[in-house]
Amino acid sequence: MKLALAAALAGSAAAFAPAQQGSAMKSSLDAMPDRMWDKMVDKTERSKAMPFLPRPINLDGSYVGDVGFDPFYLSSIPKNFMREAELKHGRVAMLAWTGWLATDGAFGPVPLRFPGSIYQDVSDSYHAHDIMVSQGSLGFMLFVVGFLEFCTSAVLVEVSKGESDREAGDFKLDPLQFLKGKSKDEVDVWKLKELQNGRAAMMAFGGVATQAALGGTEFPYLVPYGDNGLPEISAIW
Predict the structure, then answer these.
(1) What pLDDT, in 10s, does the model give residues 118-139?
(2) What was the pLDDT predicted at 152?
(3) What would the 3-class secondary structure string for the chain be?
(4) Distance between CA 125 and CA 95 in Å, rounded?
C-alpha cells in the first residue's frame, strides 16, 4: 500500500516538473530568427539626443551633423541613401522657401517672377501651385525634375553595390570654389553649415506653407484671427 501511494505521489510530482518543458521552450527560442531590433541599436549606449532610447547603431558620430536624433531608427537603412535624401530635401527646401518669399515680394518692392501675365497676375505663392498646374508650368517642371532624378540615380545604385565611393550629395558642383584648397576639417564645417541650413529650411517651408493655408497669404504671413481667438474660417475657404 505504501509503495502504491509513493508511486502515485511521484507521478503527480512529475506532472508539474518544469525540466522538459523548459528545455523545449529553450529549443524553440533558439530556433527563432534574430530580431531586427538587435541589429538597429547599441544596447550598451544611450542616444545623446534622446537618452531614454538606445543609441542607433549606425549613428556613431562619423557623419557630419550626427547628433544622435533618430527616434524612428531610419539610420538602419544604408546611411549613404538616407544622407542623400536628407541633403536633397534640405537643398530643395532652401530653394523653395527663398522662392516662396521672393515671389511674394519679401525681398524688395517688386515680386521676383517670370515675365508674362500668367505669372505676374498670380495673387500669391500659396495659390500659385494650383494655377501653375492648370496652365501646365508645373507639369513641365515635374518632367524636368523626374528626368534629372533618373539620370542621377544610377550612381546611387553603384554606391549601394560598392562600385563607387561617392559621398552622399556630392555632385562636384562648387562654382564659387568654396571648398577649393580646404582641409577636411574645413570642408566638414561647410558641410555642417549646409546640413543645418537645410534642416532649418525644411521646418521653415513647412511653417510658411501652414501659415499661408491658415489665411496668412501675404508676407509676413500673419494669420488673421477673429475675436474668439481662432483663425477666421472665411479667410481660409
Answers:
(1) 888 888 999 988 898 998 888 9
(2) 85
(3) CHHHHHHHHHHHHHHCCCHHHHHHHHHHHHHCCCCHHHHHEEEEEECCCCCCCEEECCCCCCCCCCCCCCCCCHHHCCHHHHHHHHHHHHHHHHHHHHHHHHHCCCCCCCCCCCCCHHHHCCCCHHHHHHHHHHHCHHHHHHHHHHHHHHHHHHHHHHHHCCCCCCCCCCCCCCCCCCCCCCCHHHHHHHHHHHHHHHHHHHHHHHHHHHHHHCCCCCCCCCCCECCCCCECHHHHC
(4) 14
Instruction: Give the Å distances, CA to CA, from 181 to 185, 187, 189, 190.
Output: 12, 9, 14, 13
pTM summary value: 0.76
Residue whose C-alpha cell reads 542607433 in the numeric block: 56
Alpha-carbon torsion angle 136, 140, 146, 149, nearest 10: -130
